[in-house]
Write a structure and sequence with these properties.
Blueprint (H helix, E strand, L loop, with lengths): L3 H9 L12 E4 L15 E4 L6 H4 L1 H9 L4 E6 L7 E5 L12 H20 L3 H4 L3 H8 L5 H14 L5 H5 L6 H17 L2 E3 L6 E3 L14
Antiparallel strand pairs: 1-2, 2-3, 3-4, 5-6
C-alpha cells in the first residue's frame, strides 16, 4: 500500500503527454503487465486519459484493422523515466477507476495506523479494561481477519455491555466473524442478567415483563 507521503509526491508531480500536451494522471499500476504477465516494477504510472489525444482517438481504427478487435492506446510514463510509451486499453474507462486520490490514500493510511495501534494494545486491553482496541478491530471491515478474530475472542471476557450497541449497528461481511460476535454478545448479556428487547432491541433486565424503552409486554 502506498504511504501518504509517497502518494502525495507522485500526485503532485507534473508530467505531460507529448501527443496532446495534457497533464498525465497519476494512476495505480495494474497487478500484471498486459504483455508478459509480469509486474510493472513500480506502484504507480502516469497515464494520458485525454479522450481527444490522437494516440487514443485514432487507435481504435488501427487496432480494428490490424488485430480485428476493439481497443485503443493510451500514452503512459513510468516514474523516473524521461520517455514513455503507448499501451493498449480495451475501453475508454480503462485506468479511470485507479487515479490516485491523495485524500483517499491519507484516510487509508490513517485507518491502517489505527489498526496497527489497536493490535499493539490488544494484549493489554483486558488488564486495563480498554474496550476501544477490541471494538476498533471487530468493526473495521478493512482490518486483517486474524486480528479481528483475536479481538472478537476477547469480547465476552472483557464483559462490557457498551460494546453491544455499536456491534448491533454494524453489518459484518464475514459470516463466521458475525457468528462469533453474536455468541460473545449472548454471553455478555447472560453474565449481566440482561436481554435484548425483541421489539426495540434495547437492553433490559432478563426478568423484565415490560420493556422500559418501548413499553411492549414481554412473554
Amino acid at each position: 500500500m502506498l504511504s501518504y507521503d509517497t502518494c502525495l509526491k507522485y500526485a503532485q508531480e507534473e508530467n505531460f503527454c507529448p501527443h496532446c500536451h495534457a497533464r498525465l494522471s497519476c494512476c495505480e499500476t495494474p497487478p500484471f503487465h498486459i504483455g508478459d504477465g509480469l509486474g510493472w516494477g513500480c506502484e504507480v504510472m502516469f497515464v494520458c486519459l485525454n479522450d481527444e489525444c490522437p494516440i487514443f482517438s485514432t487507435g481504435w481504427q488501427h487496432i480494428e484493422e490490424q488485430y480485428g478487435h476493439v481497443g485503443s492506446y493510451r500514452y503512459m510514463l513510468l516514474p523516473g523515466e524521461k520517455k514513455g510509451g503507448v499501451m493498449m486499453v480495451g475501453s475508454s474507462e480503462a485506468f479511470t477507476g485507479c487515479i490516485i486520490d491523495p485524500e483517499a490514500v491519507k484516510k487509508q493510511d490513517i485507518r491502517y495506523q489505527e489498526e496497527l495501534q489497536a493490535l499493539k494494545e490488544l494484549p493489554t486491553c483486558m488488564e486495563t479494561h480498554n474496550l476501544q482496541p477490541i471494538l476498533k478491530l471487530v468493526l473495521d471491515e478493512f482490518a486483517g481477519l486474524d486480528g479481528r478474530f483475536k479481538a472478537c475472542a476477547l469480547l465476552a471476557e472483557i464483559n462490557d455491555l457498551s460494546c453491544i450497541d455499536p456491534i448491533r449497528n454494524h453489518r459484518f461481511s464475514n459470516k463466521d466473524l458475525e457468528q462469533n460476535v453474536n455468541s460473545a454478545v449472548k454471553q455478555i448479556l447472560q453474565a449481566n442478567f440482561k436481554k435484548e428487547c425483541p421489539y426495540c432491541s434495547e437492553i433490559i433486565k432478563k426478568q423484565a415483563k415490560l420493556c422500559m424503552h418501548c413499553g411492549k409486554e414481554l412473554n
